[in-house]
Specification:
Helix content: 55-70%
Order of helices and strands: EEHHH
Radius of gyration: 11 Å
Shape: globular
Organism: Tunturiibacter lichenicola
Protein name: Putative small metal-binding protein
Number of domains: 1
Strand content: 5-15%
Number of strands: 2
Largest sheet: 2 strands, antiparallel
InterPro entries: DUF1059
Number of helices: 3
Strand order of the largest sheet: 1-2
Distance between the termini: 6 Å
């Protein structure tokens, strides 16, 4: 299990999000942003439409560097 903040994953707040795998964290972050930060969700969707792998390229190394809790 790893814990990261919304901000460290590209969002605007310090809410802690935990997940057991990268794929689970992607789902957790997506749900959080859609519920709590609709404007950020729109910006992330636009980025995804322009370059579907960009967020993962930029964010997965942070996940990999985060220690297990």
């Amino acid at each position: 299990m790893k814990t990261m903040t919304c901000k460290s994953l590209g969002g605007p707040c310090e809410q802690k999000l935990s997940a057991g795998s990268w794929d689970e964290m992607v789902q957790t972050m997506t749900k959080h942003v859609m519920e709590k930060h609709p404007e950020t969700a729109k910006a992330m969707e636009k980025m995804h439409n322009e370059d579907p792998k960009r967020w993962g390229r930029e964010t997965k190394p942070k996940w990999e560097a985060t220690p297990e809790t």
